[in-house]
Amino acid sequence: MTPLEELVSHLTGSSRAIVISNRDVDLRPGAEDNTLFVLKIGDGSHAAGGRGGGFGERKVTGVLCFELKGGEWTKRFEAEGEEGASGFEVPYYVSRLPFMFVDGTESMGYGVVDPALVADMTARSGISSSA
User: Fold this and answer.
1) Helix (H, G, I), strand (E, B) or coil at 62
2) pTM for this one?
């Protein structure tokens, strides 16, 4: 599976994910360079309630980082499990965010465009900034 295919599977799959990105989420060919962190969220018994907006529990169970540079997607980081994802938190200001897919279709997901937060997560993950 290519990094782009893996990213699409996380954005469209049944697992809950929150995207933190430098720019709008645009996966179409010719899109501007971008870095996206995908925060995988637990689907425990408390996942449906207790938070404003109905998003529920916000425990990060996995973190992935994908980067688009020069038209090519790469996966730069992956951490699984609560221990591997410790230190990564869902920002309180997450909202609905449009995702533009390779074929031009659009879907709504959850996320935030925040270059400063992406820079913080890049440093936290220990990967060098290539932007």
Assistant:
1) strand
2) 0.86
